[in-house]
Specification:
The chain is of the alpha+beta class. It contains four helices and three strands, in the order βββαααα. A three-stranded antiparallel β-sheet has the order 1-2-3.
């Protein structure tokens, strides 16, 4: 997980079809038949695979990352649900920390605690998406070339 952010967007408001005027998808309608929009908080996550934190970054709405068996449709053998559940298990601890206003937990030794780099070098590594000593250890040749530090090897 690279990080989280919150944006505020105009989104349709869910309603109660029994007591309110709603469309077929359950969103409230105004007197002219248009969906009611309301400014709502939208959380976003940026993540990447551990083997390529600098080259591959994906940013997605958190609410769309949550595994929901009722929305899987014709999911053959539950593969999509398994994938979404495994991905969410990696993201959830960091998201919980973000919502509580805490730092995102890292798996391994934090760069700040490593005497092998200065604070300035640690900042350069963090800008490349590297947060732990173990992630430095696991860098591939092509990734090392992209880190702007002298004598990276």
């Amino acid at each position: 997980v690279m990080g989280f952010k919150t944006s505020y967007e105009m989104l349709a408001v869910k309603g109660d079809p029994v007591t309110e005027k709603c469309d077929l998808k359950g969103y409230k309608l105004d007197a002219s038949g248009r969906r009611l929009l309301e400014r709502q908080a939208e959380d976003w996550v940026t993540y990447s695979p551990s083997h390529s934190p600098m080259n591959t970054k994906t940013t997605e709405r958190v609410r769309l990352m949550l595994p929901d068996p009722s929305k899987m449709g014709e999911d053959q053998d539950g593969e999509k649900l398994k994938f979404m559940t495994a991905r969410w298990m990696q993201i959830e601890p960091a998201y919980d920390a973000f919502k509580k206003g805490q730092d995102i937990p890292v798996n391994g030794m934090a760069l700040a605690a490593w005497p092998g780099v200065s604070p300035e070098q640690a900042e350069v590594l963090r800008q490349c998406g590297i947060r732990t000593v173990e992630e430095v250890r696991d860098l591939q040749e092509g990734q090392m070339d992209k880190v702007r530090l002298p004598n990276m090897r």
